[in-house]
Specification:
heterodimer, A: alpha+beta, Glutaredoxin, 2 domains, 5-stranded mixed β-sheet, 5 strands, about 15% strand, elongated, B: about 240 residues, mainly alpha
């Protein structure tokens, strides 16, 4: 694009010989400034309020049960995204609210992975169902939430423990596919707790 | 609002060949995807922001750099009128492109028997419209402060800074830094999720107010900056 594209005056000149006008040409937009100021105050107030009491937005990811999701991934030869989560855990809720409720992140998950939700019940019931315990042992899950990306026919997996923000999560998900399918690819490190691929 | 100034803006934009070539690409390529790909839905048509950037870049800075402002303000045009006309002109032009593209895209989807529902179409169009007006507002503010197409550079730098702050927050485990990054990103790329607003679920009024706050703040500050701008007839 050139730095200047002449022409604004050409058309504007046609408009100028209208009825004579008086008054300053630099009048301060008082009403607009007042509205902007008011909205800014409301914005800050609501920001503080919603920080204290966050709005629970719906999760946009269509999560599968482990057995159904694994079967689907094998049949379609697609990557699986396990989300190890706990009911009522504040960090798990933040992940759901900020990442899985985001249309772009949810769209990325839906197109790249077969999303599988694994609900940990150890805190509530004392022990987990056998398949949950097996999956947590296989992928060395020690914190919640934990995201694990794995291909049904490959031994390696990548995981992210905890929630480090929407962008970090999106970056982890974007790079995970390449790290699984091309194991020697040198990718960005993502978040510090994003582990390297290791054998299950 | 001055219709003549709006028409002049459109003529100015239309005379820029690279700009029009990019607009043409962003208009036709998503439609080609829809023509040949199945199951893509409306996703390829998320280009309202691109139209806004292409038509809004240098919205005032180019007039300042070319010396047009000195000639223009020698006429009985208020600065607020000029700023609002430029803002509306670019946003309306981008909106028309978006609506035309959406109409053709919906036709292509209908040919594949994948026509989305009326509510989905309306929400999509509404979101794109809000994104366009929001993006042009931010460009308008940056453009009053920077010459030429410096506004787009400022936008890119601010966007990258916002993302870097969020990644840095993850690294240093500083939630407040992440919040600063998120808010910076929210300011330079204002948009509104109408699906959440009209979906019947809980609504984040903070996000709704944030959008309108950004738009009004940018337009108001752009007028104030233009009002305070001294134009030299000798050197510029």
């Amino acid at each position: 694009m050139p730095p200047s594209e002449a022409g604004a005056t050409a058309g504007a000149q046609g408009a100028m010989p209208r009825a004579p006008r008086s008054g300053p040409t630099r009048a301060t937009p008082v009403l607009l400034l007042a509205l902007a100021g008011l909205l800014l105050v409301v914005r800050v107030t609501l920001g503080v309020l919603e920080e204290v009491r966050p709005v629970e937005r719906p999760d946009r990811v269509e999560w599968r049960e482990p057995a159904a999701g694994e079967a689907e991934a094998r049949a379609a030869d697609r990557l699986m995204l396990y989300c190890f989560t706990r009911d009522g855990d504040p960090v798990c809720r933040t992940l759901s609210r900020e990442a899985f409720a985001d249309p772009q992140v949810a769209g990325l998950i839906q197109t790249q992975f077969v999303p599988i939700r694994v609900l940990d019940l150890e805190r509530e019931e004392g022990r987990n169902p056998p398949y949950v315990a097996l999956l947590e042992q296989r992928y060395a899950v020690r914190a919640f939430p934990t995201l694990v990306v794995v291909h049904p026919n490959r031994p390696t997996f990548v995981k992210q423990a905890g929630f480090t923000g929407r962008i970090a999560t999106a970056q982890f998900l974007s790079s995970a596919a390449a790290r699984i399918l091309v194991p020697h690819t040198r990718m960005g490190t993502g978040s510090p707790i994003d582990s390297a691929a290791s054998a299950p | 609002m001055n219709p003549t100034l709006i028409v002049a803006l459109l003529q100015q934009r239309a005379r820029s060949l690279p700009r029009m070539a990019l607009v043409f690409s962003f208009f036709t390529l998503p439609l080609m995807v829809l023509a040949f790909a199945r199951g893509a839905g409306l996703a390829p048509l998320h280009v309202g922001q691109a139209f806004a950037v292409l038509l809004g870049t240098g919205i005032i800075g180019q007039d300042a750099s070319s010396g047009t402002l000195q000639l223009l303000f020698a006429r009985p045009v208020t600065r607020a009128e000029y700023v609002i006309s430029r803002w509306l002109g670019a946003a309306l032009a981008a909106s028309c492109l978006m609506v035309a593209q959406l109409a053709i895209g919906a036709g292509l989807l209908a040919m594949h028997h994948e026509m989305p529902g009326a509510k989905e179409l309306l929400l999509f169009a509404g979101e794109q419209l809000l994104t366009i007006f929001g993006m042009v507002s931010v460009l308008l503010l940056f453009s009053t402060m920077l010459p030429g197409i410096g506004d787009i550079l400022a936008l890119i730098v601010a966007g990258i800074t916002g993302q870097a702050l969020q990644l840095g927050a993850a690294l240093f485990k500083a939630p407040w830094l992440a919040r600063v990054g998120v808010e910076l990103g929210r300011f330079v790329s204002p948009s509104l999720d109408l699906g959440a607003l009209f979906g019947g679920g809980p609504v984040s009024w903070f996000e709704v107010v944030s959008y309108f706050s950004t738009v009004t703040l940018c337009v108001a500050l752009a007028i104030v900056v233009m009002n305070r701008r001294e134009l030299s007839y000798a050197t510029e």
